Every structure is written in C-alpha cells, then in structure tokens.
Amino acid sequence: MNELQTILSDSVNGLLSDRVNKQLIQKAEEGVFPSALWGELEANGLTRVLVPEDQGGAGATWADAAIVLKAAGEHAAPLPLAECILANWFLAEAGLDAPEGVTTLLDGEFTLVGGKLSGEAKLVPYGRDATHGVAIVKGEVVRVALSGAKIAPGLNVAREPRDHVVLKDADAISAKASLPGDAMRLYGALVRACQMAGALSYLSAQTVAYANERTQFGKPIGKFQAVQQQLAVLSTQAAACGVITDFACAQVVKRGADAAFEIAAAKIRVDDASSIATSIAHQVHGAIGFTYEHGLHFATRRLWSWRGGGGGGGGGGGPGSSPPPAVSPPPYPPPPPRHKATADNAIKFV
Q1: Fewer CB in 10 Å around end: N or C, the chain?
Q2: Is 97 a domain residue?
Q3: Pair 161, 154: CB distance under 8 Å
Q4: Could you tell me the CATH number of the domain that includes residue 304?
Q5: Are the CB atoms for 122 and 108 separated by under 8 Å?
Q6: pTM assigned to the model
Q7: What's 183's DSSP letter?
Q8: How does strand 116-125 pair with strand 132-137?
C-alpha cells in the first residue's frame, strides 16, 4: 500500500473497530438498522469512494475501494456498504448524482418505458432500509426511489436483509453508461470477493489468538503440531485471498471490464478458501464456536452466505441467478484448474 492507502486503511479500520461490536451486530440481526454508523460512513465519504471528485466523491480507484471493502468484511459491518459503493459508482459512470442515504442494487427483471420502471428483484440487500435502488436496464443505469415499492422481507444465512422488491411504473432517472451487460454480476463478484477476503483475515487472526489462549493437557492447543498444521492452512488460505483480490482490483484499474477473468478467478479462489477456512476455524474453536454468544459465527455465517455468489444478495436464485456471462481468458495461460469450478459460474451477483 502507498501512503494514502495506509491512511485510508487506518481510518476505515479505526472507525469500524470503534463502532462495530457484538451488540451492534446482534441489534442489526434483530432488525435495527445501524443508522448512526451509516451516517458516519457517509460523512467520511466511504459510500462514495469510487465516485469522481467532480461528482462529489473521493475519486479513489478500485485498489483503494478494496481496502474499504475488506475492512467491512473483516469487521462484519452489518450494513450495505459494498452495495452502496457499487451502486454509486454505476451512477457516476452514467453521469448521474448519487443520492443521500442508503442506496442498494436491483438485479432483476425490469422494463423502463417513458421514465417509468417496472419489474421485480429478489434477494435485494437491505431493500427495506434503502431509500433508492439502482438497476441496469438495456445499457442504461437507472436510479429509482423505493418509497413506493412493495417489499417482502427476507434474510440470508447471516441474517442480513435480502428482500423481494416489486416496482410498478415508478418514476426513474436513467442515462447510458459504458458498462458491460453483465456489469452488476461482474463487479458484484469483485466487491463480494473483497469482503470475503476481509472476513477470512479476521477468521485467521481470531483462530490463531484463540489457539494460543485455550489450554488443554497443560499447554495452549496452538502448541500441538496437528493444530499448528491446521492454523498454517487457515493462514495461508486467508493470505492467498488477500493477494488475489488485490490483483483483481489492480487489473480492473488497468483494464476495466476486460479483467473479467481475473475477477472470476478471485471469486473462485475465495469461495474455495471459505469452505476450508470456516471448517478449520470451527474445529479449532470446538463447541464454543457454535454458540451464539461467541462472535465467530458472525464471520463464518457471512462467508457461508456469500460464497458461490457475488455482491447483490443471498445464496441461491435472485441476483445473479440468470446464466452467467462467458469469460475469455487473458493472453497469458492461466494455471491448471484445482477443481471443477469455472470462471463462468463464479460471476454471480448473489
């Protein structure tokens, strides 16, 4: 990281570590949106980190945004920061202003006729708490107020809101943007992979710390070779995910949507690591890790929910459930596949 990125990292991690705690996450899971925290994130410009400065944003790059997204995942921030960052970026790409408040993403079936938006989107992140939604309809980025929407509430495994939103002839503002047709799933996979990399970083640090504190047979369990081996696997998985998501973001900075292969590769890698890492973390923590009182599940349930999908909603169906786009490999040969997952099925905005 350069000096500015270090400052950004210290700032966002400091804010989230001070504000996000077990009580706040539990309240969010009970349906209380953390409005005060959201206000601070907005005041610090974090919801508009990818919006150009001349449009009222921070003018940062995807490499910078990755820092914010990883911090949100690491601290299990119970709000749609990733979705709002992406929605505001889509609006900026179309030359539209980003509204105040919570803006979410609408990845569904919509029609836009005469400035009126109709259709529905399933598993919308925080639809009940959002003031606006952003959809992409036939190459146009569409901003719509959700005050008149019909919203059926739902939850994912992590108890994050994933709602069914229905709009009928809603007043909308739209503009053309130079975005690929699969932009919502493509960049959704990237933001979610970054969040997951942050959650894996927390998982590694928390599990190593617990292994060094928990004693059995007269010494910390982290001193046993079998446990050390598991911790090594967990740590390397987390580190690898941090590297590959940074690389994907760097390629997006250089090549934009042409970095689709790198985005897909990052999402596949993070999905695989999540399965491995969550298993190890719960094995090392033992029974206490399965209790609601312990905070481990705040990370593991998010990883379970986010794997296999992108950034738009919960697992299975809804955003990203349509056939994923084909992804062409880069000019250099990729490494041999380690499993049967493909770049195609990695890019899902779920």
Answers
A1: N
A2: no
A3: yes
A4: 1.20.140.10
A5: yes
A6: 0.89
A7: H
A8: unpaired
